[in-house]
Amino acid sequence: MSAPLYAEIGYFEPWWMQIAKALAIFLVVFNMVPMALLADRKLLGRFQHRYGPTRVGPFGLLQAVADIGKLLFKQQFVPRDSRKWLFIAAPIISMVTAAATLAIIPFSDTVDIFGVKTGLYGVDPSIGILFAFAFGGIAFYGLMLGGWSSNSKYSFLGSMRAAAQLISYEIAQGLSIIGVIMMVGSLSLVDIVTWQEQNVWLFIPQFVGWLVFLVAGFAETNRPPFDLAEGEAELVGGYFTEYSGGRFAAFFAAEYLNMVVVSLLFTTIFFGGWDVPFWDQPNWIEPIVVLAKMWVFIFFFIWVRATLPRLRYDQLMSFGWKILLPLATLNALVTAVLVVVLD
Amino acid sequence: MAEFFFFLAAIGAVGGAAGTVMLRDAFYSVLALVTHLIFLAMLFLLLRAEFVAAAQVIVYAGAVMVLYVFVVGYVGGLEAGLAGRSGPALRVISVLFAAALFVELTIALVGTGLEAINTEGAGYRAPFGEPSEVGRLFLTDYLVAFEVASLLLLVAAVGAVILARRRSGLGDANEISVTDFLKRDELTKGQGETGEMIEAGGPRGI
């Protein structure tokens, strides 16, 4: 056989290393979810001049564990008129799509582990960031099926809002990245970080792109001020109104995991990933740098939640289509011209 | 490993396609089509066509099918399902058409001379299927087709806007919006008032 088959070409690591690092990345980042949950409650408390949870564990640090434990032991109610299979599948889709994006986040470049050359990322496909958008597209079905199969008006309206918001802002988000891709000349997140290591963090030359990506990221994760999908005053709880127990916990965890993933994407695409400027950092510290930068963004998410009131639904839509989308398009256009002129 | 994924994707794709045609409930039918498209993307991945696979999922599963789901969700699955009249004549004709299509496809497939069908297949060259290679081909070998396709899409987009304006009779060009569309009586059962959160009228049948 002269050349290997298309499908038989693997990546350069042995199979056990791929499994090991997949587990490691998933476990580390997934454990950020209860921490983000706790940070959310503690910080929101502080922003509102109260203590937040203090009872469970020292300083209330085990509150998130208690929350999750409570939810897991509750009854998992399935409404009689719901579409049962879809109702059960929806939170799973949400979780899987949220977790899948973790695969492309680079925590460091290639390093030696026990003499095996290993990239500290799940995979580095040539489609890079498109991988994240693909799973973002599928995430729509988690929300939509959850709301539709519940057979309840509140759920349905919540899912319609969430889905409309998701697809509207995904376009702006996709366009805001194009400037970055043109400057770097690659879709791969590893290449994007390496480029930033050698040149400059991309939020400086791509300032407009970064802002659009930031706002769209808020909308994509259904975080305040864009959390109309679960506007308590109008819709009870949005698409997960009818959910309880573990399935509700899955939706909830997916939302926080999305926040973590979007923070990681901010870090990677616009803030240099594992790079620390003016310092030739050792390899082992790079994953910690990425996680530290991620926490800055999670703090920012919570800060915004505590500060800004919720938008009105038509304001949200017209903002996405009439401001963000033209802005992102303009940014892509200007960047294209500049890249050609300066080259 | 490759065989396992091939058969998984192939069975999934065929099953999804069959479900699209055979399921009575429009909502499930749309979902079956989504499944079909996702498994197709998996087949593309097995051929190392990474960009095509991503585009397939983003454009078809993530955008086109979303519109289908919206429409079926809002307008509501038909309670009685899509049970049409199926007389004996219709059945005979449908079988005839299916057979004709099968013959046609067989001729097309065999006629191209699938020379590689008993071999290991073509070898893998490094940039194959990557976005850079696809982009290079678009802007060199297939430039005309690429530009014509984008022109076609532009015409379609403009046409859609014009049709939407004419149908709903909007006065001002500034007023074309999803909100206005949702305000229409058939979606809100006539309960939508100006200034209200109009989508609260709710879908039919729930």
List the helices and strands and how they pair.
The complex is a heterodimer of chains A (343) and B (206).
Chain A: H1 15-30, H2 32-47, H3 63-73, H4 84-100, E1 110-113, E2 116-119, H5 129-149, H6 153-184, H7 189-198, H8 207-220, H9 232-235, H10 245-270, H11 286-307, H12 313-342
Antiparallel strand pairs in A: 1-2
Helix pairs in contact in A: 2-3, 2-10, 2-11, 3-10, 4-5, 4-10, 5-6, 6-8, 6-12, 8-10, 8-12, 10-11
Chain B: H1 2-22, H2 26-46, H3 50-75, H4 88-111, H5 131-139, H6 143-168, H7 178-182, H8 185-188
Helix pairs in contact in B: 1-2, 2-3
If you had to describe this structure to a student in words, what would you say it looks like?
The complex is a heterodimer of chains A (343) and B (206). With 343 residues, chain A is an all-alpha fold. The termini of chain A are far apart. Chain A has one domain (5-342). Chain A has helices spanning 15-30, 32-47, 63-73, 84-100, 129-149, 153-184, 189-198, 207-220, 232-235, 245-270, 286-307, 313-342, and strands at 110-113, 116-119. The model of chain A is unreliable at 1-10 (pLDDT under 50). The radius of gyration of chain A is 21 Å and the shape is globular. The longest helix of chain A is centred in the middle third of the chain and has 32 residues, at 153-184. Chain A contains twelve helices and two strands. Chain B has 206 residues and is mainly α. Among the domains of chain B are: 1-82, Four Helix Bundle (Hemerythrin (Met), subunit A); 142-184, no CATH class. Chain B is built from eight helices and no strands. In chain B, helix 1 packs antiparallel against helix 2 (26-46) and helix 2 packs antiparallel against helix 3. Chain B is globular and about 50 Å long. The relative contact order of chain B is 0.07. Chain A binds chain B through residues 1-9, 86, 125-127, 130-131, 133-134, 136-138, 140-141, 144-145, 148, 151-153, 156-157, 160-161, 163-164, 167, 170, 186-187, 234, 313-314, 317-318, and chain B through 1-2, 5-6, 27, 31, 34, 38, 41, 46-48, 50-51, 53-55, 57-58, 61-63, 66, 69-70, 73-74, 120-125, 129-132, 177-179, 197, 199-200, 202-203, 206.
